[in-house]
Specification:
Layout (H helix, E strand, L loop, with lengths): L1 E2 L2 E2 L13 E3 L6 E3 L4 E6 L2 E4 L9 E4 L3 H9 L2 H6 L8 H9 L7
């Protein structure tokens, strides 16, 4: 039930809004969508999509070198994009390497 724009449950208490979760293709841990970097494949190249607006299938990744390394070793991007062959990940590696390191567990 909604009263004046506030979501209420049947007891009258306010409810917290649910946050979409995604799984990192590197470490396989679930996290809030806004904490992960969306990556898409464009013509055989892994492209970072920080705004989440590029078309096509996306894979989500913690924007950290460790998770990127795990994803590359496991060939997780090929599975996530349902592709075969190889992907050029140089642009993604430059992007993740240029980001400040966050406190990911």
């Amino acid at each position: 039930m909604t009263i004046r724009g506030v979501d209420l449950d049947v007891s009258g208490r306010t409810r917290g809004r649910s946050c979409p979760e995604r799984t990192c293709v590197g470490c396989r841990k679930r996290a809030a969508k806004h904490d992960l970097l969306r990556v898409t494949a464009v013509e055989g190249v892994c492209v970072p999509d920080p705004r989440g607006t590029l078309p096509g299938r996306g894979a989500h990744l913690h924007p950290e070198p460790g998770c990127l390394d795990l994803a590359l070793r496991r060939r997780a991007f090929l599975r996530a994009f349902r592709l075969q062959g190889t992907l050029d990940t140089a642009a993604l590696e430059r992007y993740v390497g240029a980001l400040p390191v966050a406190g990911h567990p």
